[in-house]
Amino acid sequence: MFGKGKISITVAKTRFTPGDTISGGITLTLKKPVKANEASISLICEQTVTRPGNIVNGKRMSSTTDHNRVYDFKQKLDGEKEYGQQQSYQFELTVPADALNMSPQIPGMGSGAGELLNVLQTASAIFNVGSVQSTKWYLQAKLDIPGGFDVTEKTDISIA
Asked: Residue 108: which residues within 8 A CB-CB, separation 6 or more?
């Protein structure tokens, strides 16, 4: 156990469909009590788009990869306090009904911004043949420690 401790996520299953409820728990094991801002669990979706580089003088330049967080829902499990060496929390999160059609969230922009970004990405893919896109869903448990390294853990899940 490195750092201040560890946090683990427990879920009964890892395959879900849109609208399903993800039920589980997190267990926090610390080396010693620590003051923290909050304990939370998040449901996150990230899209990765890799585009091959342009061809210059007959040679392909290096590819570019963009990582876009398209969904991030955080559920606070406990607030600011001194956390003991062993604590457990239960959680329930709902998979969004439109989980299979997620578009990137742009801070400060309305829902139309995601639609515009989808159009631009589609146009980019048309003109840059060979683009590869992948979508990854995961749960992230976190103990937010001010002025120090947070205690975090990720668990991959599948939504189809």
From this structure: none
